[in-house]
């Protein structure tokens, strides 16, 4: 008798649990999904408005109007952060807005938050590289002498992380060359500028950086023209470079015929 009562009670409890699971759990899950979707949609809407405002602020020649647009963008960004504080994108946009307003220190702190763990895991390779290079720029602008080592760390990471050639990687090498130059590391600076030229032979920043460096380092005498290092592949390319003074960089690669001719003509 007692056993039958226990079995019936167990069956009743199991039935109630099944009914609860069927009726309540799906509704709760659906409600949570709808809430998350609504939050994501609202966040994207605020970020889209902020991006448009920042684009207008950058292109506006009137300083007062540009700053007003930047402040409005920050308002939209703050709304996005209140909805989804784990997203790194609002912090990156906020950094751009603060920089437009001239608040470089605050812009740097905002980028620090964007690149902090675990937010940084949400960034794509391109976004991470851009953020690292931008943070290095801000560090040099805020306090060049005290933050130069930290800037070098960011730039070396950006170069290492980025597998694709492009403007941002060229910029990273140029900034790295500037940092090494400030630290008195002439050979490392030269190599960084040369790497930038390999990616973008027309880079003015890289060429200006090489022109600032002395022809000879204190430890090694360069013995190869820069034309070979930047990879000139045709007579027209060499000819376009021959109108400028040919700087020297060390390399173990054999000289091509056009480089030898150009070097002899200039030396």
From TrEMBL:
Show the SMART domains listed in the entry: TPR
Record-linked SUPFAM superfamilies: TPR-like
Question: Which positions make up the signal peptide?
Answer: 1-21
Recite the UniProt keywords alphabetically.
Signal, TPR repeat
Name assigned to this protein = Uncharacterized protein
Instruction: Please report the residue spans annotated as repeat (TPR).
Output: 170-203
Transmembrane stretches, by residue range? none
The protein's organism comes out as Gossypium barbadense (Sea Island cotton)
The family assignment reads:
Belongs to the TTC36 family.
Xref: Gene3D superfamilies = Tetratricopeptide repeat domain
Superkingdom, taxonomy of origin: Eukaryota
